Amino acid sequence: MKYFFRVPLHLLLLLASQTCDGVMIKSTPPVNAEGFIRASPDDTVSLICEIPDINLKEEELKWQRNGAAVSLNDQNKKTGSALCITPVIPEDHAATFTCSLAKNSTDSASVTLEVLYPPQLSGSENITIEEQEDLVLVCDMKANPLITYVTWTLNESTVDLIAGGFTVTNDGRTSRLQVNNVEQSLHDGVYQCNASSSAFPNKTKTFYVNVTDRTIKFPLVPLIAGVVVVFVTSILAVVSRWRKIVKVTHKADSHAKINK
């Protein structure tokens, strides 16, 4: 999200205003009946702060976003000071922009953004998992308005929590489907997470889950250690045997020389 400081003059006729004493904010889009500026991601919101009192026209203005100062250039600190929020992002939801006189912060006006956005559910994901492993599927539920309805399906049928050993948890931000010790006959297939809200019905994400036979995995480090031990033991045994052979041969040669 970026802030720009110029708004075309022809937009002024479309601006709605919020006024408090000597400061007034005009906005595009206008403030709705609930007192918010409604927008969607990638939209642009334009704000202009004006001083209606002609005696205060030369007073400096300042902007704040949720209480934090917004940096302005010197040419944008007098009446007509403008902000342009573009593109609007989900994190702008409930952000409050306040314009006030620099020398008197109580002389101010504020507007609040209401950003409507759907959950980030789309596309598909391929998952390969072996039997007896744990399967966890997660869908992002963060949205405004809040998600009111979530379902999980397997091969186009609602998942059977009891027969399949599934557990489903929702914390308002994510929906999680989990099963321990997967079985190919029960858990292989196409999963879908479906979410709906009053503004964004039927958002879906698909998971293609391939459950394969379990492979026997050998622990590499112990295996290598075992091979080394066997190899060293074999070498020591050969060396020991060789020493015995040499001793016997040496005794036989010595005995033969004495007999001569």
TrEMBL record:
Compartment(s) of residence: Membrane
Q: Where is the signal peptide?
A: 1-22
Q: Which GO terms describe its cellular component?
A: membrane
> What residues does the Ig-like domain cover?
29-112, 119-212
Q: Topology relative to the membrane, per the entry?
A: Single-pass type I membrane protein
Q: Which InterPro entries match?
A: Cell_adhesion_signaling (IPR051275), Ig-like_dom (IPR007110), Ig-like_dom_sf (IPR036179), Ig-like_fold (IPR013783), Ig_sub (IPR003599)
What are the entry keywords?
Disulfide bond, Glycoprotein, Immunoglobulin domain, Membrane, Signal, Transmembrane, Transmembrane helix
Protein's name according to its UniProt entry: Transmembrane and immunoglobulin domain containing 1
The species is Oryzias melastigma (Marine medaka)
